[in-house]
Design brief:
4 copies of one chain form a homotetramer.
Chain A lengths: L14 H4 L1 H9 L3 E6 L2 H12 L5 E5 L3 H4 L4 H5 L4 E5 L8 H13 L7 E7 L10 H13 L4 E5 L2 H8 L3 H4 L7 E5 L9 E6 L5 H4 L2 H7 L8 H11 L3 H21 L15 E5 L1 H9 L6 E2 L8 E5 L7 H12 L1
Parallel strand pairs in A: 2-3, 2-4, 4-5, 5-6
Antiparallel strand pairs in A: 1-7, 6-7, 8-10, 9-10
Helix pairs in contact in A: 2-12, 8-13, 13-15
């Protein structure tokens, strides 16, 4: 409502939008260039398109959202550049696998698109969180190969809440060059941001980045309504408070499930995502009771149904407990 | 605030979003498929990309927003399909020019991308409005060549307010197949819609249209916040009331300018855009007094500065009168 | 030299080019539309781009040339459509894996690009050849899902020579809809062809296929020089005779290697490609003796160097025997 | 036939292909990087794609082949970057028009794709030839704006033959950065080349240029057969001799037409293209006599049929005279 007052310039020429870089810079304790957009898919795809030539490629984990869940958006924004995936056990890329991937790609010569960016996800798609040391190792390998690092931070706030570190330590201090900052999952109506940490790898692409936003229809004429959402999340650490609550609810779910003999937890829950394999009949009964689940492909050789439970900033303890009681019953 | 209540499905699976087709259908008195997006550039580009193969082309007026003012977005979404422009006097395409354009294109054979869509703009970029008969003639020519018609309706509400017709008469009854419905200029925070009028030309592309939205990062997870804006505008004709006010303010400006000897009005003001050529010194004095203008290239052989004055739904009479008084003084 | 005589029309309007469809039709015993191009990469990429929307995907084996060895060309021609790969033991896709791949993709809904084409390779990248029954099973599954089948036939002639079947049996009678016909590997300077077998799945894309060729810079003004190469190969079965010779040389190599204790043959040689793992030192000694090899990544847990030996239409028995003698020595 | 001897490396790793840079460098008297391709459309599109970002634009004359006659290939290779055209009287861009075009584009800010390259054509599409001084002026303006210059030299040999200058004077000495070298029109089966004159503007894009060739299916495995054509043309100035003959035949046609009262020559013939407006009935009679013409759109207000006559390296004097005699009769 406050953002709606008065006549202001368009396309980001308003006081709220002009204050974004300073606010993000203060939170991340460094010089940044922040560009708001409405979806994580847009943030990831725009960020990567600024790093990768159309004839290039991105290296990412096989579980990456950019590879599996964005309807081909990265390939659209990158004009056909390829996503090359590496296998991992739990969504966290292994340093040795990264080195091998880079070597195999280079051996392919002109037959393989060259790797122009490394994209990591924190927290990962399987709800795990990279230790800061492991994140730094991966970034260092990339930089040794002259490759910049993008971080899909759709759930960065959950990872920071889990790690108990600063936003700076979780990103550029570990070697991240460009961040997809997630705001929607931690409270915004629809607000994410591409945050460039200004350095020699990112400086050349900053100048024209807004052109890519305009060209994809993501530049708001009334930009203040987008900026206001991000500013509110960053004020007094609201984004982190919201995510700490979501993480706590996830832990409560995990603890409850551990008491249930039929529940298998294939991954460690470190953010706000709980993956659990439940007996088929139990899942059906819960559905009959009104719950709804997205089913994941169950790993080979395992019986039961793999579902994901994702508490958020507005998940209430009583709703968690009601679900757990229903499972026990 | 009302849209924010409760837990609902994502990606459009909520009551507000599900009601969009019915609401748009009621307003336009026909069967429609409406897809909300945040910018006019996204609406235009997505709509055209569903009609035009990458090796095809769009025919449009040389003044068209898609050709001049969208940073190359249509070419991005259409994967390089070409915008072929036709000259016009005041932004309104001429039927004979359209026939010639289609003939010249066809003669080029394999050397020229084939025309796959006609894109018109109502109200036009120069603030003029097609008569319904002229609009229908152009659509008929396109349909005779098996070409669907897209309407850039960023200012459709202003055109309808000017014409005093129904939304149906202004669109599908004249032959329009796909509409970029403008909501932002007539009051929304950021809400437009691609509205397909369901017929044999549009039916084949409806099925996968949401995939194009997802792939361009324009699919909101919390879609209700986008849908709510459009529903509010369509309720009780708010979009048209807002635009009627904007048009009235534009007429008030025109009347004031006509009393000023130094003002030349190169186009008829029929919507809410006033184009006026003022003496250079007057423009500079107004700027010194705090007014800001976007300068247009002045036509050859004319002296003075061409500026555009665009009142909106929230322009007040007293502000219009203050500007006119300043000009007179 | 004969093709160089006289003045003829350009862009395929010459007697040689006009005779291509009839010649290919006679060889394949059905109605075809054949389009010559200079490389297999162009043939594969153009063929797939005509079947797959930019927001769609192609299903192929993880060993496929289109996925690994064409520098991202398919993604370029398809405007970012995705290649989704399936694992296999020896380059031959398994029917059950195909069914699973299609099911997983469909479950992803709007988050995953829909499968618009199945691309198979015959002979495969590992030198194996699909039995006609297996090929037909895969095509039937694709057709059951309304998906057309593309065959990368860069080494189709080697497969036909191995199978002892007719070109028709090896392609459209098994269910192939579009073929990348390989001419360069069996004798041409640079000549391949996209061959559409005319049916309800291919008919809609034939009309504009030449536009895609033009738009990618692959339409020759002096097309007769390209057509002449294909006509010569198809005359009196020259393409098959050349490939039978190459296959025979490959078998001679295999027999020789089998007598060598240190050689491991990971795949069955059915066409003209021999993959062999030799002791590292032996490979180095051969290189010192003047031989050159392309090294493949050696499978995990295996010691030695994986190389590929590919005899061709002009490989002489004495050269094969010299190599084998060198290895024995 | 000579190129067909022996076993050589693929993808350009053969003696003929490796000698291209030296041969082109000797002819153009400077350091070059030359990349052979089969069509002028591929040469132009690849060259421009290396200079222009997908969100950028190319400035060219409204008559340019890249804009009118290549089926949208430049837009395909440039991933949707825009061709912005400037009007001219006879295909030769005017320096003042260029300055205006650059200024208008810059004023558009983020709404207009930025100009990343200037593309000129020599000889032009209307058969005229830029004076070296005019070419140098245009290049200097572009360089002043940090914009590299591409020259479509499909008929460069005709222009050089007309100007009587050296290849170096006609290109890099005037400021050209990248040349589409035309070989097909002056004698090759199908051979053109993208020739980069190595300087600070071109050096950054050389490294990955071959990747663009591979990615568009234009990299020949048996590259020697493409290289051999270019080497033959460059030997002993064959390309220029062939074009001098074509120019002379064009002049003979012009002289003959000047003697015919009904013939109007709208442009000066400086290369090998003669544009002539003949009475409709005369054109029909010539067609009845077996001649074939491509009809151009006749300028407004002029009666008659505009046709183009293009003699080539193998046009014989007796055939020219026979046509002229037929016209006189």
């Amino acid at each position: 409502m406050r953002a709606n007052a008065g006549n202001v310039g368009s396309y980001g020429d308003d006081a709220l939008s002009r204050s974004l870089n300073a606010r993000f810079g203060a939170v991340f304790e460094t010089d940044v260039a922040a560009f708001p957009v409405v979806t994580g898919t847009a943030a990831n795809s725009l960020a990567l398109s600024s790093l990768v030539a159309p004839y290039g490629a991105v290296l990412c984990d096989q579980s990456a959202h950019i590879s599996n869940d964005e309807g081909g958006a990265p390939e659209f924004f990158m004009h056909g550049a390829k996503l090359v995936t590496l296998p991992s056990a739990d969504g966290r890329m292994d340093a040795e696998a990264l080195r091998t991937g880079l070597r195999v790609n280079a051996q392919g010569g002109i037959l393989k698109p060259p790797i122009h960016a490394l994209s990591l996800t924190q927290a990962t798609e399987w709800g795990t969180v990279y230790a800061l040391k492991d994140l730094a190792d991966l970034c260092a390998i990339a930089h040794d190969h002259d490759i910049p690092v993008h971080l899909d931070g759709s759930r960065l706030s959950n990872a920071i809440a889990h790690l108990g570190c600063t936003p700076a330590e979780a990103t550029w201090k570990a070697g991240v060059d460009v961040l997809s900052f997630g705001g929607t999952k931690c409270g915004a109506m629809a607000a994410e941001a591409v945050v460039f940490f200004v350095n020699d790898r990112t400086r050349p692409v900053l100048k024209d980045f807004e052109r890519r936003i305009k060209r994809s229809g993501h530049l708001w004429s009334k930009a203040r309504f987008l900026s206001a959402q991000l500013l509110a999340l960053l004020e007094d650490g609201l984004w982190l408070k919201n995510s700490a609550h979501a993480n706590a609810m996830a832990q409560r779910i995990v603890e409850g499930l551990r008491r249930h003999a039929g529940a298998q937890l294939p991954f460690e829950t470190q953010g706000n995502e709980v993956f659990v394999i439940l007996p088929d009949r139990l899942v059906e009964e819960l559905e009959a009771a009104g719950y709804g689940f997205y089913r994941w492909p169950t790993p080979e050789g395992v019986s039961g149904t793999l579902i994901r439970l994702v508490p958020s900033f507005h998940t209430r303890i009583e709703d968690v407990d009601a679900l757990l009681a229903e499972i026990s019953a």
